[in-house]
Write a structure and sequence with these properties.
alpha/beta, Rossmann fold, Dihydrodipicolinate Reductase, domain 2, 2 domains, eight-stranded mixed beta sheet, 34% helix, globular, binds nicotinamide-adenine-dinucleotide
Length: 347
């Protein structure tokens, strides 16, 4: 019989619903959702009921000692990540943690060091690079259809009420850069490569939130390319592109542009081709969330395949810390008013 992966999901709140659906859908690929855990017994039991999971826990330590788990998927808020990741790694279990990886670069470094020391699989659930339009853009770039990328803009601007689903975001001291900025900075790495230095302007445009809700960042990549990476939850634009990331990339021989309707224009050699990059609507998904929901399942699938093959995920802790270092550099750049090299770029 093909190898199975016995999975326990920790945190059964807002975003975990997408993970629970994904793991259930991946049953045919070897995923076996055997336990769920939430501090709230009601939430844990509700998830177990909805997704036919045999066991529900309110304490991750109990779940670990009672179940023979292969993989723990942590979908709690960032203030709990290090404690829970550390507990799972200590128990010798492969671990996935939602973004943002940790509360600080130091925390991320400690988790990475622990996974290296124990030789444990540790992945960060970074799903934007697995959104269907972004996968297609990556393919077009790797085929050289616009030559070498030299300039780009990656833009996530919305006025959608994200606080309705995630009220805790109002109180985050480090807010948009580590919330959605981490995703768009990851895309910048994927499209243009590693970053030599960056500058950042941060704004708090909504007086009812604690941290910055707008970030405008300029990145110089090692390749020489420059990218403008921006995000806001305070946009007044209509129509609002939410939840689409708008992307423009100029290369040495052509250019591409992803619009809010998910149409991708690719210009090269005097002609422009327009292709549809919309994602399939999975049987558990609904518009307009379907692109994000599809990306969560693709991310889970990628991690599962890597675990089964015994290789690190492309979104390993090792990789994701480079994206986290960009967030950290953006805060320093904004505070110090200058270009900053990300931590992993320092001599
Ligand atoms: N990748 C994305 O696109 C995306 C989108 C939204 C949220 N997220 C991330 O998902 C994570 C969870 O966010 P959310 O909005 O679902 O939060 P949430 O507060 O809705 O859910 C978190 C759940 O974890 C539970 N919990 C907290 N501590 C626990 C512990 N020690 N043991 C067991 N359960 C515990 C809480 O009771 C809660 O039910 C965050 O890191 C967030 O940034 C990612």
């Amino acid at each position: 019989m093909a190898r199975r992966c016995r999975i326990g999901v920790v945190g059964c709140g807002f975003f975990a619903q997408n993970h629970l659906h994904s793991w259930k859908s991946l049953a045919g690929e070897g995923a076996e959702l055997v336990a769920v855990c939430d501090l709230s017994e009601e939430q844990a039991k509700a998830a177990a009921r909805s997704f036919s999971v045999p066991a529900a826990y309110t304490d991750m330590a109990d779940m670990i000692s009672n179940e023979a788990l292969d993989l723990v998927d942590i979908v709690t808020q960032v203030n709990t990540h290090q404690t829970l990741v550390s507990m799972a790694l200590d128990a010798g279990i492969a671990t996935i943690v939602q973004k943002p990886f940790g509360l600080s670069l130091a925390q991320c470094q400690e988790m990475l060091a622990q996974s290296r020391a124990t030789g444990q699989f540790l992945a960060v659930h970074e799903n934007f690079r697995f959104q269907h339009p972004h996968v297609m853009i990556r393919e077009i770039l790797s085929e050289g259809r616009i030559g070498d990328p030299t300039w780009g803009r990656i833009s996530f601007r919305t006025g959608y009420d994200i606080y309705a689903g995630q009220p805790y975001l109002r109180a985050e001291e480090r807010f948009i850069v580590t919330d959605v900025g981490v995703h768009v900075l990851d895309l910048a790495r994927v499209f243009f490569g590693e970053v030599r230095h960056l500058s950042a302007e941060l704004q708090r445009r909504n007086p009812d939130v604690k941290g910055e809700d707008t970030a405008t960042m300029t990145l110089r990549h090692r390749s020489g390319a420059v990218s403008v990476v921006e995000c806001t939850y305070g946009s007044r634009q209509q129509p609002d592109p939410f939840p689409v990331t708008l992307i423009e990339i100029e290369g040495t021989t052509g250019a591409l542009r992803l619009d809010a309707d998910l149409k991708l224009s690719i210009s090269s050699g005097g002609t422009t081709e327009v292709i549809d990059t919309d994602a399939p609507v999975l049987d558990w998904a609904e518009r307009p969330w379907h692109v994000v929901q599809h990306s969560v399942q693709v991310t889970c699938h990628h991690i599962l395949e890597c675990w089964l093959a015994g290789v690190p995920a492309s979104i390993s802790a090792e990789d994701n810390i480079k994206t986290y270092a960009l967030c950290d550099a953006a805060y320093r750049a904004a505070t110090e008013g200058r270009n900053v090299r990300p931590e992993c770029e320092r001599p």
